[in-house]
Amino acid sequence: MKINETKLLVPDLPCMQRDRLFRLLDNHLHRSLVTITSEGGYGKTTFMSNYIRQQQRASMWYRLDSNDQNPRIFLSYLKKGLSSFISTLSSDISLELEQEVEALSMKLSAHKEPLLIVLDDYQMINDQAELANWMAKLIESASPQVTFILLSRVKPSLPLIRFKLKQQLGELYAEDLAFDQHEALSYFSTFSQLSLTIEDIQTLIRKTEGWVTSLVLLADLMKRMNEVDRRYYLARLSITEDIYLYMESEIFEQQQQKVQQFLLQICLMDELDPLVINDFLGIEGSAQLLDYLHTNHLFILREKRGYRFHRLFRMFLYQRLKKEIDEKEFRLRHIQLAQVYETRHSLMKAFAHYTWGKDYIQAARLMRLMVKRFHPELFLAVADGLLEALTPDNSLATTSLFIFRCVPLSILEKLVPIFEKNLASINPEDRSLLNQVQHRLAHIYFYRGELNDSKALFEASLEGALQCYDLGLVALNYSMISQIYRFMGDEAKAIEYARYALSYAEEHSIPPHVKMHALWNLAEVSIMKKDLHYAESLTRESLTVSEQCDEASKAYPLSTMGKIYRERGEYNEAMKWGREALEHAVRFEIEPDLGWTSLELGITYLHAGMLDEAETSLMKAYQIFDLYSDVHQVVRRWIRSVQEQRYLSANPPPTQVEKVPNLQVNLLGTFQLLKGGQPLGIPRKSSLRLFLFLLTNRGRRLAKDVIIDALFPEDSFDTVQNKFYVSLSVLRKSLEPDLLSGRNSKYIKQEGDQFFISTEEMFIDAEKFIDLTGKEGDDGLQSWLHAESLYQGDFLNEFPYESFLEIERESLTQTYLNLLEKIATCYADVHQYEKTVEYLERILKKDPYRDYIYVKYAEVLLEQKRYSQLKQLVLRAKKYLEEELDIRVDLLFGPLLEKYNATQPSVRLL
Q1: What are phi and psi of 668, to 5 degrees?
Q2: What's the confidence (pLDDT) of residue 429?
Q3: Most confidently modeled range among 61-75, 352-366, 638-652, 687-701
Q4: Tens digits of residue pLDDT in 821-847
Q5: Which helix (H) or strand (E) holds 172?
Q6: Facing residues of 120 across strands?
Q7: What is the CATH number of domain 789-903?
Q8: What is the pLDDT of residue 661?
Q9: Is CATH 1.10.10.10 the classification given to domain 663-773?
Q10: Distance of alpha carbon 352 from alpha carbon 173, whole angstroms
Q11: What average pLDDT does the chain have?
């Protein structure tokens, strides 16, 4: 028989020396058999041939192919290869094959020198039972100096357990052959002459799982790129054409048609659960198929939670499936899989697959169900990348806008400490992970109304994403920063950042979610600038793009269309669009969407003079946005406007012309000074302090010396005199720019050496608040609610260290708390217990040390049989009253506890 000598030559392949693998193999060479088993492309042949050449080991090499399944051919090649190391061995086949094998085993048992017998591509003969029997006999009879090394894509069909029990078996697998971080860095820097950062290497290892062929092919691709293109590619790393073709020809197409179809059908799953697969495909026996795939090393890994695909192989299958079926069928399969997961009570995975199937109604429904069922920390998986992990071709830019609207803020708030802790512990070199965590935490801050903190984190994420060339995240950060600037009233910055977002989305084919958000945001800014024609154009384009995004997001441009018509004074058309937006939001029941559409529709009703409808809509928004502090304040201001309109309707002005105050001063909460409805600034800090001091002491004439002692206590006489008059002059000029003489000021008055503020032509919210709280009778509640809406925060709360404000601040705070108590009592009298609880809760949030309020609150909860809330209230009382003030809670609640224990003897409160 003619022998092809090349099959017996040790391959001479250029490669990097892998000392780690050399040491692993050295540790096994005292055994009779070493199996090196993995999927294709892990460099088995390259590693083994390099080891033989570098270590100069005596080795027989035999590369198998399908012809070697013939026993005579196999034995001929084996004898020919061994004849170079056993001088008495002839390469001819002169005896019966069994006799030849027996003779060969005798030769191997007597061999005295170290010898490696390497059989490459052993999978080519693995199914031949006769050859397996021969191999087992030869391995078992070989002397301790002989080691068989089998390189195979499948586990050899040999009595491996027997060898293992005799301590004769060594095994290396794909996880041993895969590049680790050090090897990858060495390969790219020395062998491929590519300078990559540690972060780049970490990204490559994470996404390729160290698969050698993929790294070699990626190195070849990146060598042809410039620095910018390389950074961009690494940020979006996916299957290249070469990797796709390798997996297609060397792995996928080598399988039977049945196996190919099975792989494509299950590639939507990140975890390969046999029970889920059986339900999804309507089959039985998927467990056996998975075992077969794993045994045959088809890029299926077994982990603690079960089987999963190798990441790159799943990407390949995902792309292959997308080529074979259309988008509609692809989404339908995600939805069908979601239904299976939901039936099996795996709600998080069901939520994810409904989302990828674009069935956002079902996704939102599941989110509401999970909120009631699960502990908040479970939602960390959703907020921290579950959706991106489940599908190979999606990213944070695709999911972020939907997820952070869909998960209620009450849940997200509880995740803040976890995210903040994670953020602090991330290695700064892992820039990609840092960018994502910053972006996610920024989203939560945004919804909480902490706009400055949110902007800072979005900007940090933006800077990092630019460095990493994660252009989808770059565009999304730009769009979110634009929205924050819009909320802050900085129109120029909002437009600038929205345009950046749109430019990146256009240039780099970013998913449409970012484009839709940026278009909508730019439309809202255009409304602020009164450019309604351009705003309408942008909004209609945003509506079109929203068809490709999460369906729920369509509520926003629908609502904006209503806003545009409202600005034009076309209230019927505005209400039509606003109602459509609200109806759309109701389908999904996502908190921010419902709140936003209710707010905008309520404002439209107010402009149209429909006060009942306006109040209903705005109160709904007010309740939804309870935790969204920034938007919550906006809604309160609109509710205040409704109440003011009601008040004016019920109390029409007298027939004579009444002067409308030209100057409006808001002291409750953030200080605001408006003249003619426009913000008015006081440029000098000392002038502002003088204004606040006079306002705090309104109704009193103050001697100049009293003012100076309060505002400038540490300065010399000459200095303070000058400071006082300069501050006074600047204040008067700020309030009345056209004023020729300070003594003619209608606001800052002077009589001799005394100064006071005239409020006749001013609207001061604190004065109005005090006036309304004193109302009684039939109109009392309406006046109190109006007063409550005026209280936007504690008196001048942005000036916490000005001592002259403290008395007034404390007085108004107490008035506010007393007001809340009166409102709560009023609602209790008419059996509106939801409102009663709401206002009692506000009192305790503001002042958790009011013991008698706990008692009132407990009485209502007990009356309404809200035992769970009652228990929480008692625990809160223990914390604030008993632990901090030494007030015994059992005595405080004495009679109530007796009543409770009589109705609920099995569950004790204390």
Answers
A1: -90, 105
A2: 74
A3: 61-75
A4: 998 888 888 777 888 888 999 999 999
A5: strand 169-172
A6: 63
A7: 1.25.40.10
A8: 67
A9: yes
A10: 33
A11: 88
Q: Which amino acid is present at 12?
A: D
Helix (H) or strand (E) holding 459: helix 451-468
* Adjacent-strand bridge partners of 34: 149, 170
Q: Decide if 45 contacts 11 (C-beta within 8 A).
A: yes
Cα 36 to Cα 48: distance, rounded to the nearest angstrom = 9
Q: Structure tokens of 526?
A: 């255009």
Residue 478: name the closest of 495, 354, 188 by CA. Answer: 495
Of the candidates 631, 744, 749, 643, the residue with the CA atom closest to the CA atom of residue 700: 749
Fold: same for 412-549 and 559-652? yes
Residue 132's nearest CA partner among 60, 47, 57, 74 is 74
User: What H or E segment, with its residue span, contains residue 63?
Assistant: strand 59-63
Pick the CATH number of 412-549 from 1.25.40.10, 1.20.140.150, 3.20.20.70, 1.20.120.450: 1.25.40.10
- What does the pLDDT look like over 452-490, one tens digit per residue? 999 999 999 999 989 888 888 999 999 999 999 999 889
Long-range contacts of 305-310 (CB under 8 A, 24+ apart): 305/271, 306/271, 306/272, 306/273, 307/271, 307/272, 308/270, 308/271, 308/272, 309/267, 309/272, 310/39, 310/209, 310/211
Q: Is the dihedral of CA 623, 629, 635, 641 positive or negative?
A: positive
Class of domain 5-177: alpha beta
Q: Which residue has the higher pLDDT, 421 or 125?
A: 125
Q: Judge contact between 160 and 42, C-beta under 8 A.
A: no
For residues 266 and 741, give the distance between their C-alpha atoms in angstroms, rounded to a whole number.
Answer: 84
C-alpha–C-alpha distance, residues 269 and 261, integer Å: 14
Ramachandran sector of residue 235 (left: φ over 0; alpha: ψ -120 to 50; beta: rest) = alpha
In the chain the first and final C-alpha atoms are separated, in Å, by 94
Q: Looking at residue 668, what DSSP letter applies?
A: B
Give kind and range of the element (H or E) at residue 61. strand 59-63
Rounded to 5 degrees, φ, ψ at 301 are -105, 145
What's the predicted TM-score (pTM) here? 0.64
Task: State the DSSP code for 757.
Answer: E
Check if the beta carbon of residue 230 is closer than 8 Å to that of residue 286: no
* Contact present, 148 and 32 (Cβ < 8 Å): yes
Q: Phi first, then psi: what are they for 3, rounded to 5°?
A: -100, 130
Give the pLDDT confidence score for residue 426 in this predicted structure: 83
308 DSSP β-pair partners: 301
pLDDT at 47: 95
Q: How far is CA 732 from CA 67, 728, 800, in A?
A: 103, 6, 25
State the architecture of 559-652 in CATH terms: Alpha Horseshoe (1.25)
**Cα-Cα-Cα-Cα dihedral of 36, 42, 44, 48, to 10°?**
-110
Integer-rounded Cα Rg, in Å, for the chain is 38
How long a stretch of residues is the chain? 910
Sequence-separated contacts (24+) of 883-889 with Cβ below 8 Å: 884/849, 885/849, 887/851
Q: What is the pLDDT of residue 908?
A: 63
For the chain, give every domain's residue range: 5-177, 181-237, 412-549, 559-652, 663-773, 789-903
